[in-house]
Amino acid sequence: xxxxIDLPKVLTPDLEASLNTLATATLTHQLHQRGIRTTxxxxxxxxxxxxxxxxxxxxxxxxxxxxxxxxxxxxxINAQKRLVESTEEGDVLVMEARGVAEAxxxxxxxxxxxxxxxxxxxxxxGALRDTPAIAAxxxxxxxxxxxxxxxxxxxxxFSTDEPITCAGVFVVPGxxxxxxxxxxxxxxxxxxxxxxxxxxxxxxxEDFALERVAAGEPxxxxxPLSKERTPDFEAWRDARKS
Amino acid sequence: xxxxIDLPKVLTPDLEASLNTLATATLTHQLHQRGIRTTxxxxxxxxxxxxxxxxxxxxxxxxxxxxxxxxxxxxxINAQKRLVESTEEGDVLVMEARGVAEAxxxxxxxxxxxxxxxxxxxxxxGALRDTPAIAAxxxxxxxxxxxxxxxxxxxxxFSTDEPITCAGVFVVPGxxxxxxxxxxxxxxxxxxxxxxxxxxxxxxxEDFALERVAAGEPxxxxxPLSKERTPDFEAWRDARKS
Amino acid sequence: xxxxIDLPKVLTPDLEASLNTLATATLTHQLHQRGIRTTxxxxxxxxxxxxxxxxxxxxxxxxxxxxxxxxxxxxxINAQKRLVESTEEGDVLVMEARGVAEAxxxxxxxxxxxxxxxxxxxxxxGALRDTPAIAAxxxxxxxxxxxxxxxxxxxxxFSTDEPITCAGVFVVPGxxxxxxxxxxxxxxxxxxxxxxxxxxxxxxxEDFALERVAAGEPxxxxxPLSKERTPDFEAWRDARKS
Amino acid sequence: xxxxIDLPKVLTPDLEASLNTLATATLTHQLHQRGIRTTxxxxxxxxxxxxxxxxxxxxxxxxxxxxxxxxxxxxxINAQKRLVESTEEGDVLVMEARGVAEAxxxxxxxxxxxxxxxxxxxxxxGALRDTPAIAAxxxxxxxxxxxxxxxxxxxxxFSTDEPITCAGVFVVPGxxxxxxxxxxxxxxxxxxxxxxxxxxxxxxxEDFALERVAAGEPxxxxxPLSKERTPDFEAWRDARKS
Amino acid sequence: xxxxIDLPKVLTPDLEASLNTLATATLTHQLHQRGIRTTxxxxxxxxxxxxxxxxxxxxxxxxxxxxxxxxxxxxxINAQKRLVESTEEGDVLVMEARGVAEAxxxxxxxxxxxxxxxxxxxxxxGALRDTPAIAAxxxxxxxxxxxxxxxxxxxxxFSTDEPITCAGVFVVPGxxxxxxxxxxxxxxxxxxxxxxxxxxxxxxxEDFALERVAAGEPxxxxxPLSKERTPDFEAWRDARKS
Amino acid sequence: xxxxIDLPKVLTPDLEASLNTLATATLTHQLHQRGIRTTxxxxxxxxxxxxxxxxxxxxxxxxxxxxxxxxxxxxxINAQKRLVESTEEGDVLVMEARGVAEAxxxxxxxxxxxxxxxxxxxxxxGALRDTPAIAAxxxxxxxxxxxxxxxxxxxxxFSTDEPITCAGVFVVPGxxxxxxxxxxxxxxxxxxxxxxxxxxxxxxxEDFALERVAAGEPxxxxxPLSKERTPDFEAWRDARKS
Lengths: 242, 242, 242, 242, 242, 242
What we know:
Chain A is of the alpha/beta class. Chain A has 2 domains: 13-188, Glucose Oxidase, domain 1 (3-Layer(bba) Sandwich), CATH 3.50.30.40; 194-241, no CATH class. The first copy, chain A, contains 8 helices and 14 strands. In chain A, the strands form 3 sheets. In chain A, strands 1, 2, 3, 4, 6, 8, 10, 13 and 14 form a 9-stranded mixed sheet that branches. In chain A, strand 13 (176-179) and strand 14 (184-187) form a beta hairpin. In chain A, helix 2 crosses helix 7. The longest helix of chain A has 23 residues, at 192-214. Chain A is elongated, with a radius of gyration of 20 Å. The N and C termini of chain A lie far apart (48 Å). Chains in contact: A-B, A-C, A-F, B-C, B-E, C-D, D-E, D-F, E-F. Chains E and F meet through helix 2 and helix 7 of E and helix 4, helix 5, helix 6 and strand 9 of F.
């Protein structure tokens, strides 16, 4: 567990700084523009809606409990323990639990361990256990439900650092995970740079539009930005920069 | 877009003032008493549960996306833009999105435009985009879900100011929409006056009952109010007025 | 309604004090250890997530509305009134409403009466009416939905103090009901003593593990507690006590 | 188990003969005309869609399994056995299982016993076990799902011959249960006579309309029957009778 | 009602003959190839799975019932009657009922009228009433559920021959509707010719592949058809034609 | 693809012959008796309810579509092709598709290939494409839905012969899969022998009970079989054998 995990680290400090300013909605739009339609995870609630989460996907897959297999998958250093203990600075734990609300996927002790090791957030399309204690940690966590029971009821932790489907979205270990008050988006690791670049431009345009609309202008020509208004936008942008 | 919208405005300042004091539960009950059973929109979450919303229904209907129709319904001055830009003081935007959680119906720029133009609130049985930014506006918004994507994924904006079904409730443009921390109720425009009148009386009786119950009296005879306790109620009401 | 309700009162002041310190997750685990798997109520939202609820189950069952039976089950001193008015100090009202979100099971006046009489909390797998007013009472309430309508739409109050199924969990009148920010767990009345005793020990071990993990130790050996680390735990426990 | 069950028997041979000719849709309509809106059980599949079922409701309620209560409710002569063994000629077994698809409510042996004793049909809003064997009996059965497991997984049989909610419809023991290829309707026992009487008239009118429409006439004036066409109908009816 | 409906008729006898040989799966694939992803209606059951349905979409939209609007939308010559009575040879009736299973959208008399007038089929994402009688007509009908009640419970018929969303698919009046044992697909009217042309070629290739696979060849190279196997296919096709 | 698959073959001809006589309900019960509760797959429909299916589980897992990964997982000899082409005599194809109804997992050509290679059946908790053509093959297939589209809409085929969760049940490649008109049960490969042995005894007892109940005896003492009736059963069994 001491050897570094063999997964790409695509997040440079610059990219991370940029992602910390970009809305998940903007990132989702940029991916959609590239023909990648299913990247935002619907139906998950943030425990800390005012915080932002940026990190590298570390994946954990739960399968249905079968009692004759509990010894194999649940006891000892199981997949959950392996994954949490191998957390590196900057990791986000993403779990596949198939929308099951009737047993939890992680509790406060493993969540604490994740954050102590430098983890940046936890995402599950299943339930949390110890929700109040996990909320008290004060770090970004996204979940589908809460339940007082964990292993032994519905799930077994099965595999780590393999591709999963979480909340209907395909996640590859090493992908970039971003969360805000709206929810969570997965950015394929190969696309992060270009997506961030274009998202920054898009967000500037939306900031311009929002400022003008808040000041009383109609949306037409501002959103989406028309050719006619592009000079206005550029002047505004240059003024803001200086 | 400059001509006033041809929809009845049934809300006088007095009615509006009264509606600002009446719970959606009381209004729902009054409509139920008149045999109108399906007026409260179940399953919607308020972004500002402590605020009240009162206004005139302006309706927008989303239909399922079909890519060969995107040019017709989505580009240019589409139905969404037309409706938002024609918002008048006192309007509430009500959208039919058939409970689809996997693509949004409105984002922060159009929401801002709605409120700048004097809009009083936004109601969707689909998803919001830019939920944190919309919440930051600080005005009443009711929604079923949040999603990072908007047009081009599930919906096309289709028609404006025509009757719709939102969250299972029939809404006619011009109807009165009231929201509080419980949710949203639709009052048919022809019935507003009588409903408000009777709701004010009902709420007085409930206030009386609540005060007495809080003071330790049993509910029986107080709620519903019995003949025997009516004089007590009337004395209390008269005392309160003076 | 003045005669004391003929239901066991298994909660001594000591048990209650202990239960006020025990997480629903810990209690759910202890019941699971005894082979009782379905005791935590999934899908309910707390109105006061920061509060704790401990009390004796008083049950109320709603059945589907049938208009020819309304006189029998709904008018006069119906089951809802009977149950609420017979609330004793320490009771929790638990309602079976089969997950119906489109009509409420209780409003603010009956909720107030429950708390005035010493009730400790309200649990429904249906909807609340007057949710903002009930939230303003500031006492523990757990619900599935909110709706502006109550009787006469979907439900009739049917029976009191008989076993029910609430949110998929079997509840016997007299059972112990515990709630926290995670949700609600039902403890069969015969098992409260032993469950509390073992839960206190379990929670001490989890506190020890959490403290060490927060301080930077790996989870392995700490959770679950290994033989090797048991002396450490015991020393920590003894030190904490003194 | 030898004493006759103390439940009204409202079905005379004449009523039964009439009900065997009346569609569940016609009966549902007659009840709706009397203000009773929720009498048809949605979502149930008939094993024998071409057969008709008419009988008296005998009710059985399942509650959620709780392992500490299995001895009380499941072993020995439990509620299921009591009810099935007390079946009388003309009874229909109606079970409340709250839409649970993941464990069955009855298997082939008890189903066989029901029919041997003169039972007329089985209705469950849960699952059947031994579905192929039950289908092979060749008698009317309506169910929500099929599952290989029965007791000990999700349910305990709880009470017999008490009012229940099946598929969202309130059922009183002794009510009349009618089934056809469309599904099942519950007729309150007090209303059977008048409902049958009016349903026979309604069905005659619909037969007339259907015959004319099949012969090429427009629906207008025929369905619903107008004053102008009433003499035509009456002539047709009199001709058919003779 | 005697003037011909002003809707395009794009189905020539040749196209219709071709469509009668093409699987809905093949047509769905051809539309998907053109970037139109949502054209197959999921979740509907065929009453006559062995029959094929080909026709022109005539649309009817149901909205939520609101009792104060029943006179306007339900009585007299309502939208349902208008649409059914205006059926022309070759029409398929497609209804939007938003997946509501608890009230029907059409019964046997109007269904009969549809077929008498030359209608080719009925599609609803809501319920049928008189399902056994409609099945007895022996013509193609696709539905989501069955229910004994029709108007006055959940729906009002609202508009005719306007675009709708049925089972999550956008349908324009005049579009081509095709059904088989798998379900229903909507072909945008402008695309029918090219879709049919390419679908015929695709189906020939699939027939070739299926024949060879049935004869024991591996799927690779056959499905999808590789360059290497194209000459084989062409020889087979030419042989079949002659 | 010519090397035999490296998976245990636990099914001897004797076991297979026995399993062909055993109901899935009986097998589910035997597994439940051993503490293995979740082995029957709920919610799947048989295309051939009158047939029986017995075979070895070959597993295929679908994940959510992500367009940037289509080249990797979908084109060329993808997981679906690899698995189907490696089918051996006696295999059952079991697919994990997470209950997605809006895109299919297999069509008629691959289904045909499966059966040509000696496959015994197909099980999916997603949709079939070409359902009528697959039904025409006349072999056992169990599915959740039907849809005209296959790859490129919701799924990518991901992995083969690894453990999966199908319809909420954990399936290990090599496990025994049994299907009848009720549905499908998974028997852990290590337990097949003992489960079959005990299931044969159980089924004999149930046959005895059913015969007697059909002949008019009460269920009590017969099901479950009491000590008092055991001699009767043994006599019946011995008589039947000779």
